[in-house]
Amino acid sequence: MAAPSIQGNADATTTARGVEFPADASGRRSTGSLARDVVAEALSSIDPNARRRMDASKNWRKDYVSPFVEMVACGVNNDSAYRTVSSTALHTLQSRMVGITGRGEIPMKDYLSEVRVDDANVPDTETIEGTGEAATELAIPYRGSVLRGAALAGQIEKWRAEGVIEPSTADKLLEVQQHPEWLSLPGREVAVLGIGSEMGPGNVLLSWGATVLAVDLPSSKVWARMREQAGTIAGTLRMPTYDGEAGIDLLTQLPETRAWISAAAQAPVTLGTYLYADGGTHVKLSSASDALAAALFDDGTVDALAYLATPMDTFVVPGDVHAESNEAFEKANKVTSVRGALGRLTMGKGFARNYPVGSGPAVHDALVTQQGPNYTLAKRVQRWRATEELAKGRRVSINVAPATRTRSVLKNKALAAVYKGAHHFGIEIFDPETSQALLAALLVHDLSTEQPTRDFLWEHEADGASSGGLWRQPYIPRSALPAAAAIGMALRGK
After folding, report:
1. Which value, in Å, is the radius of gyration of the alpha carbons in the chain?
2. What is the rounded CA–CA span in Å between residue 88 and residue 383?
3. Does the reported pTM lie above 0.90?
4. Which residues is 270 bridged to in the sheet?
5. 99 has a pLDDT exceeding 50
6. Which of 31, 296, 351, 438 could form a disulfide with 339 if both were Cys (CB 3.0 to 4.6 A apart)?
7. Running DSSP on this structure, what letter comes out for residue 404?
8. Where do the segments described as Disordered lie (predicted)?
9. What is d(CA 466, CA 429) in angstroms, rounded to the nearest whole number?
10. What's the distance, Cα to Cα, between the start and end of the chain in Å?
11. 385 within 8 A of 423, measured Cβ to Cβ
């Protein structure tokens, strides 16, 4: 099939040019100013003084953390404020991001309703029917072994006891272990945006016997690997193809992606978003995938969404997390403690308390300025969409993923050093294959059981979280990271 063309509501056929940041008066497409405008607009919806405070900031790249924290903190005891911030932020972003066609620019919120694909340009579907054996029990790779049965249950309980995963996460994993018939997700299909992602569940689901609709770039090496592994997967893989070449570009072929998923689906679909890119491209991917999620939900192709939240963000945590962390702080920060002395010498900047003194739900802030506002915005888009759909009573699986040794992390020398030294502070860093299997099991649970009713929207994110220990350890992460990095640098090569 030839390169695709799309049509607007007019009869003229035009070629899509892709998802882009909005242009300012000079024609410049600024990534940083968009994030600032979205956050200011969202906070202004609940606080008239928010924009004035943000305008007073002289260094957005450094000062972005505080307003991003504020966007979460408003919802500790106020669901209305939490949802208002989420919906305003999402609307602002998608009203300003644009899809560019030969006929001009269209706001992303309208793009998929105003641009349609000629049937002749919908990708073909290549189907691989796996011939491998479907899983008959839950198994999770861990430190060179594959845990199953009593060994897996024991490790799950160890993670629970050490605060590596939340109690709700342990309960979910144990329930999936008791119901291996859930693993193949019978009667359901999962459309995976980013099938080549190191954190995504696609490969694991296929090994368990599930049906996966895969989306990734034509240039991705994942397609050759998938074809080579046809004999080892147990599920069914469907891939979009043009003239036999697998893959599709979400940024330049978003309408085609929507049309292909609708055409390829043969059962209720869960749309899972596991995309990553550097810098502003990550924001564009999040905007595109969000528009796709909204469109597919509204037209009935999709009846559930799935996301992974990064642990290096801000969340509301339950009261028991707050209490345990404060107890750990008091124990670790005695007058004779070296860390306590360092904390006092640095005026509270080093080894600072993870949560304020007190009780009840609290805000966990793991944001670090080095991540930058683009990454934080890109990940928040997914959480805002999850909040919107959960508030409507729709099914969403959103789980906080553990810190993981992915390629994108390890290529950053500073983060690699932090990860190497993190265990000295009670933080467990997972290998990708462990995270993949653990998170796939949580997704299976969320899609196979009734979605619980919560008192507050933030509880959906706290439920099933695997922070690796960040939530329950004594110190706010960015106050201990320099020490972890120093230890990691010293241990490099050992």
Report:
1. 23
2. 13
3. yes
4. 190, 304
5. yes
6. 351
7. B
8. 1-32
9. 11
10. 53
11. no
